[in-house]
Amino acid sequence: MTSTPTPQAPPGRRWPASMRSLAQRNFRLYFLGQAISILGSWIQQVSLSWLAYRITGSAALLGVTAFCALIPQLVVGPLAGAWIDKQDKRRWLIGVQSLLALQAFVLATLTALDMIGPALIILMSLLLGLLNSFDTPLRQSLIGSFVGQREHLPNALALNAMLFNAGRFVGPPLAGLLLGLTSEAACFAINGFSFLALIVGLTLIEGIEPPRAKGSMGQVFREGVTYAWHTWQMRMLIVTLIALNLTASAYAVLLPVFARDVFAGGATTLGWLWGAAGCGAFASTIVLANHRQLHAVMRAVVAGVIISAVSLIAFSLAGSLPLALAAMAGLGFGISVCNVGINMLMQGMAPEKLRGRVVSFFTSARFGFDALGGLLAGFIAGAIGAGHTLLWEGVVLAAFVVFLLSRSRRLVNLASESPAG
Questions:
Q1: Is 329's pLDDT higher than 90?
Q2: Where does the chain cross the membrane (predicted)?
C-alpha cells in the first residue's frame, strides 16, 4: 500500500482494545460522519416500508420494494467492484453520497405533494439500490486505508458494523416516533440532510490514496472472479452468505405484516420489532470487536448461522409480542454475527489490490440474495401467511446448518493460517 501513513492519536490518549482503530484520525472522521448518515438511512427505510404498506396493504409490494432496493447489488455489484478498484475511491464516494442525498430529497418532495404511489415507490427503491451498489463497496474498501494498518482492519470493520446496528437499534423506534408526530416525507428529508455529515468528514480526511488496479475492466473483473472462485474458503463464505440472506434476512420484508396483522399494532409496534433486532445486532458487533484473530471470527460465524435458524423458527411461532421481541433480538444477533464476521474474514484474507472486488462480491451475495429472499417471502406470504413463510425459511436454514457444520473445522483451520488469523 502506497498511501501516506495515517495520523495516530495524540500522545497520552489511549483507546480500549475493542475500539483501537479509533486511534486513527481519518477513521474517527469517517466514523462520526457515518454514524449520523446511518441513523438517517434507517429512518428512511422504516418510513418507506410503512408508507408502502399503509397506502396499499400489500405484503407483495413490500417484497417488491425490498427486492428493488437490493437487487442492483447482485446484478451491478461485482462489476462495480472492478470499476471501483480502478478509481479515486474517496472522490467517488463523496459524489455517490451527494446523489443519495438528492434521492432522499426527491422522495420527500413527492411524498409531501401526495404524488407518491406504488410505481414511484418501486422506481425510487430501484434508484436507491443502484446507488448503493457503488456506495457500499466504496465505503467498505476505503476502511482499510482509513486505519492504515492491516492488523486494525477487522476491528475497524466491526466498529463500522456497530454503527450500522446502533442505527438499527435507535433508528426504527425513532422513525416510529417521528411517523406518529410528523409524516413519511419529513423522515425522508431528515435522511437527505444526514448524508451531509459523511460528506464533510470525507473532505477532511488526509493522505488517502489506495493503489489502483491496472488493466481493462474485463481483466480486472476476471482477476477478482478467479480469486474468489478458486479460493475454497472464499467460496464457502459466499455460499453461507447466500443461504443466510435468502432465508433469515427475509423477516425484514414481513415485519409490517406482523406489526399490524399479527400483533394488532401500528408504526410504533413496527419500530419496536425493528429495534429488538437492532439490539441483538448491536450486541453481536460488540462481541466481534473484541475478536483479534480470524479463526475466532470464523467460529462466531458458524454459531451465528445456528442462532439465526433457531430464532427465525421461534419468531414464526411466537404468540405474543414479548416472545416475538426476544426472538427478534436473537435473529438480529445471529444474522449480524454472520454478515459482519464474513465481511471481516473476506477482507482480512484478501490481498490489498483485490479489496474492492472482494467487497463487491460480499455485498452482491449479502444484499442481492437478501433482495431475492425478500421478494420470494413477500409472494409466499400472500399465499400461505407470514408466519408459515418464516417457519419454512427457518427449516431450510436449519438444513444448511448441518452442511456447514461438516465443513466448519476446515474453515477454522484455514482462517488461522491467514496473515491476520
A1: yes
A2: 29-53, 59-80, 185-205, 237-259, 271-289, 296-317, 323-346, 367-384, 390-406
Q: Report how far residue 253's alpha carbon sits from residue 360's, in angstroms, rounded to the nearest whole number.
A: 23
Instruction: Find where cell 440472506 sits.
Output: 245
Sign of the torsion angle spanned by Cα atoms 349, 232, 301, 173: positive
Instruction: Output DSSP code: residue 320.
Output: S
Instruction: Specify the 3-state DSSP secondary structure of 230.
Output: helix
Helix, coil or strand: residue 108: helix
CA nearest to 198, candidates 146, 157, 129: 146
Q: What percent of the chain is predicted at pLDDT more than 70?
A: 94
Give the amino acid at 283. Answer: A
Which residue is associated with the grid cell 427465525?
Answer: 312
pLDDT tens digit sequence for 351-364: 777 877 888 888 88
**Residue 282 identity:** F
DSSP H stretches of helix in 182-266: 184-204, 217-230, 232-247, 251-257
CB 130 within 8 A of CB 72: yes
> Which of 369, 137, 140 has its CA nearest to residue 238?
369
Cα–Cα distance measured from residue 338 to residue 315, given in angstroms and rounded to the nearest whole number: 19
Give the angle 411-417-421 at the CA atoms, nearest 5°: 90
Question: Count of CB atoms within 10 A of residue 10's CB?
Answer: 8
Question: Whole-angstrom Cα distance, residue 188 to residue 201?
Answer: 22
Query: Quick one: which of 40, 388, 53 has its CA closest to 198?
Result: 40
CB 61 within 8 Å of CB 257:
no
Residues in Cβ contact with 128 at an 8 Å cutoff, skipping those fewer than 6 apart = 69, 100, 103
User: Is residue 205 within 8 Å of residue 26, measured between CB atoms?
Assistant: yes
The amino acid at residue 52 is A
Whether residue 146 contacts residue 30, with contact meaning beta carbons closer than 8 Å, is answered with yes
Q: How many CA atoms lie within 13 A of 417 on its CB side?
A: 7
pTM beyond 0.90, yes or no: no
The three three-digit cell numbers of residue 220, written as one number: 480486472
- 28-58: buried (b, 16+ CB within 10 Å) or exposed (e) per residue? bbbbbbbbbbbbbbbbbbbbbbbbbbeeeeb
Handedness of CA 60, 65, 69, 71 (dihedral sign): positive
What confidence tens digit (pLDDT) does each residue in 381-416 have? 888 888 889 999 999 999 999 999 999 888 888 877
For the chain, list the domains and their CATH numbers: 18-205+213-417 (1.20.1250.20)
